[in-house]
Amino acid sequence: MADQTAEQQQKTFLETIIEQSSIQTDNEAQMAAKVVFRILRDMMPTEQIDQIAEELHTEAPKANMEIADLWNDPNVMVAFFSRISPLRQLSISSDTFLLRLNQEGALPREADPKTVTKAVFAALKKALPQDKYAAVGQNLPDEIGQLWQQA
């Protein structure tokens, strides 16, 4: 796996999402990952967000750099205001999590937000060491936490 190209590793990450959900294309998988990651970051303390970003940038194989890019918010203004907001680590219900994914992720009509969430979680867990992904699960509400455990 270490000698895979970045494109192959990225595809493996996206393929995990595609294979485990009804998402059909790499673009849809990227969008779903970005939105799930955005919601996760909204629920996590800044230090933990930074640790995961660092982990994806340094400890993961070089091929995971694309996954690290998906983790970071592409909107510079949103990223900046998220960091300075006093409302860090939001309390988001499972229903709100899934609603946001469905709306912000522009999921295809046939895509089930729970299945997509679980697929993104499975792909992220493959890219992180166990201690990092165990910490992520602590921030998740009931039903989303169950999806995290099942992934």
Q: Into which percent range does the helicity of residues fall?
A: 55-70%
What CATH calls the topology is: Globin-like
Distance between the termini: 21 Å
Quickly name the level 1 CATH class. Mainly Alpha
Sheet with most strands? none
CATH superfamily grouping? Uncharacterized conserved protein DUF2267
- State the domain count: 1
CATH architecture: Orthogonal Bundle
**Overall pLDDT level:** 83
For the secondary structure, the number of strands is 0
How does the helix and strand content classify structurally?
Answer: mainly alpha
Query: DSSP strand (E) fraction?
Result: under 5%
Shape: globular
Output the helix-strand order: HHHHHHHHH
Q: Output the radius of gyration.
A: 14 Å
Q: Work out the helix count.
A: 9
Unreliable runs: none
Using brief descriptors, characterize the structure shown.
9 helices; about 150 residues; Globin-like; about 70% helix
Structural overview:
The protein has one domain (6-84, 91-150): Orthogonal Bundle (Globin-like), CATH 1.10.490. The model has no long low-confidence stretch (mean pLDDT 83). It contains 9 helices and no strands. The chain is mainly alpha-helical and 151 residues long.
Topology:
Elements: H1 6-19, H2 26-43, H3 46-59, H4 65-71, H5 76-84, H6 94-104, H7 113-127, H8 130-137, H9 142-150
Helix pairs in contact: 1-2, 1-7, 2-6, 2-7, 3-4, 7-9
Task: Sum this structure up briefly.
This protein has nine helices and no strands. It is an all-alpha fold.
